[in-house]
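hey
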C-alpha cells in the first residue's frame, strides 16, 4: 500500500474504460460478506483481496484455530476454513476477485481511482475493509530473532520442529493471547503467558481454559524487556527477560519461542489525508452506520472498529456497507446492474483436498502432489524445477499461498512441479529441511536447493526464480 495520500502519480490511460459499480478493498468477514450482498444485488462487484500488505487475504481469522462463536457452527470451525467458505460463497454469486494489494487510492474526484498491479481501476463507490495488522513490541533485537523464535502468529508457526517440547511464551491478556497459549500446549513442554496487568481481558470461556491448563503459567504484572540468543547458537531465541511495568524486579525465562498477541493497528495507510480518521488511525463513521466522510465510500470491519473486533460484527458491517452502497448507487442513478447468466448459481460443493501420495496414486508428471513419498520420488527422479511448500493445517497464510503456487505451475505448463509437506504429519522432513515457520517454500533443481522463501510472496517472485533455472542464458 502507499504510505499516504493518493500514490497514483500521472493520469492513467485506463481511465477511459467504464467505471465499476463497486470495488471492495480487503477481504476477511467484512469484505467477503459485502461481496456476497453486492453480488446478489447484481452489482457485479470487484473485490481486491489484499495479498501481503496489512496482513493476508482472509483477514485475522486466517490466523485463528477454532472459531467457536460464529453462528451456524455448533462444533466450531477452523478460521481458514470459515474464510474459504465465505470466499467461495462470494464467488458463487458472481464476485470477481483480484488477488493483489491495492497500491494507491485517489479519492479527490469521482469516479474514485484505485491503483493495483500497475493498472488504474475506477469505481463509482468503494467499500474499505482493509482490517488491521498485528502489533510488535519494538524491543532490542526483535528483528534479529523474527522468524527465529519470535512470531506474531502462534497458529501459523507453533507446529514447527524448533518449538516442539520446548518452553514457549505468549505476550498478551486478551482472547487471542489465551487461545494461542492453549494452542501451543499441543507442542511445547510449558507455556508462559506474560500479562502486563493484574487480570485477563479475555472472555470468561477463554480465561477458564487458561486457568484449567496445567501446562500454562501466567506471569502477572510482567512485560518483555529483552531477548537473548540460545546458548551456543546466536541465531535462535534462547531466553526472554521480564520486567515489572512499575519498575520492580526482573527475571529471565529460558524459552525457544516468543509469540505476540498484543493488539492491532488499523490498515488505513491508503486513506490518510483523504478520509477522516480518529487519533488511533481508525476510519470515522457514525455509530451503527458504514458511511465515511466521503459520499459513496463506506467502511466495514476492523478498519473502523476499535471496540468490538469480532468476526460476526465484521460480517454484519460488511452487510451494512453493501446495502448502503447499493442504495446510494441507485439513488444517484449510477448502478449498472449485470444480470447473472444463471438465476440459480451452481453449487460449488465441498473443497477438494489434495490426497497424500503413495505407491498407488503417485504420478511422476503431476503438477501438484502431497507428502513425503512424492517429495522423495521427485527429488531423486525429476529433472524439472521442484517447488516444495511446508505448511500446517491451521496456517492461514498457507491457504493464501498454495493456490498462487498452483497457478505458477499451471502457467509454466508442466515445466516445473510442486509438492506440499504437512509439517505436523512429516515432522522429520520439516526438521531436516530447517523449516522455522510456515509457509516456507524451497526451490530445488537436480537435488540442489536453489532458493528459499519464508511467508507469503508475490507469484511473480516464484515465476522469475523458476524461469531463471529453465533459461539460465537469458
Amino acid at each position: 500500500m502507499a504510505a499516504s495520500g493518493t500514490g497514483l502519480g500521472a493520469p492513467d490511460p485506463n481511465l477511459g474504460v467504464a467505471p465499476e459499480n463497486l470495488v471492495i478493498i480487503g477481504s476477511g468477514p467484512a469484505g467477503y460478506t459485502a461481496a456476497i450482498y453486492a453480488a446478489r444485488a447484481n452489482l457485479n462487484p470487484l473485490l481486491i483481496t489484499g495479498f501481503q500488505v496489512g496482513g493476508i487475504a482472509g483477514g485475522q481469522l486466517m490466523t485463528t484455530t477454532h472459531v467457536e462463536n460464529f453462528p451456524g457452527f455448533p462444533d466450531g470451525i477452523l478460521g481458514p476454513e470459515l474464510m474459504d467458505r465465505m470466499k467461495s460463497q462470494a464467488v458463487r454469486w458472481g464476485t470477481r476477485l483480484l488477488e493483489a494489494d491495492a497500491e494507491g487510492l485517489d479519492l479527490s474526484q469521482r469516479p474514485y481511482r484505485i491503483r493495483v498491479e500497475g493498472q488504474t481501476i475506477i469505481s463509482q463507490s468503494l467499500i474499505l475493509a482493509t482490517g488491521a495488522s498485528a502489533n510488535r513490541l519494538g524491543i532490542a533485537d526483535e528483528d534479529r530473532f523474527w522468524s527465529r523464535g519470535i512470531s506474531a502468529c502462534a497458529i501459523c508457526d507453533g507446529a514447527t520442529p524448533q518449538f516442539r517440547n520446548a518452553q514457549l511464551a505468549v505476550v498478551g491478556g486478551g482472547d487471542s493471547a489465551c487461545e494461542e497459549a492453549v494452542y501451543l500446549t499441543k507442542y511445547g513442554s510449558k507455556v508462559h503467558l506474560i500479562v502486563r496487568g493484574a487480570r485477563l481481558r479475555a472472555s470468561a470461556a477463554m480465561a477458564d481454559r487458561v486457568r484449567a491448563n496445567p501446562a500454562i503459567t501466567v506471569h502477572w504484572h510482567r512485560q518483555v524487556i529483552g531477548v537473548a540468543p540460545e546458548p551456543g547458537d546466536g541465531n535462535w531465541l534462547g531466553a526472554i527477560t521480564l520486567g515489572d511495568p512499575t519498575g520492580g524486579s526482573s527475571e529471565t525465562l529460558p524459552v525457544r519461542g516468543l509469540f505476540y498477541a498484543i493488539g492491532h493497528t488499523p490498515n488505513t495507510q491508503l486513506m490518510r489525508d483523504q478520509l477522516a480518521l480518529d487519533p488511533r488511525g481508525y476510519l470515522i463513521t457514525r455509530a451503527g452506520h458504514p458511511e465515511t466522510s466521503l459520499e459513496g465510500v463506506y467502511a466495514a470491519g476492523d478498519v473502523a472498529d476499535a471496540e468490538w473486533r469480532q468476526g460476526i460484527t465484521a460480517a454484519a458491517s460488511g452487510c451494512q456497507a453493501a446495502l448502503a452502497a447499493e442504495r446510494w448507487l441507485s439513488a444517484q442513478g449510477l448502478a449498472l446492474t449485470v444480470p447473472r447468466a444463471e438465476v440459480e448459481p451452481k453449487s460449488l460443493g465441498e473443497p477438494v483436498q489434495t490426497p497424500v501420495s503413495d505407491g498407488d496414486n503417485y504420478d511422476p508428471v503431476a503438477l501438484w502432489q502431497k507428502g513425503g513419498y512424492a517429495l522423495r520420488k521427485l527429488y531423486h527422479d525429476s529433472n524439472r524445477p521442484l517447488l516444495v511448500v511446508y505448511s500446517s493445517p491451521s496456517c492461514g497464510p498457507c491457504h493464501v499461498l498454495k493456490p498462487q503456487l498452483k497457478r505458477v505451475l499451471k502457467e509454466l505448463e508442466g515445466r516445473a512441479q510442486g509438492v506440499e509437506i504437512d509439517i505436523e504429519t512429516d515432522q522429520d522432513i520439516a526438521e531436516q529441511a530447517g523449516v522455522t515457520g510456515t509457509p516456507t517454500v524451497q526451490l530445488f533443481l537436480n537435488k540442489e536447493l536453489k532458493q528459499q522463501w519464508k511467508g507469503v510472496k508475490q507469484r511473480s517472485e516464484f515465476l522469475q526464480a523458476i524461469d531463471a533455472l529453465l533459461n539460465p542464458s537469458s
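Residues 34 and 322 are 5 Å apart (CA to CA). The chain has three domains: 13-133+264-331, 142-260, 368-470.
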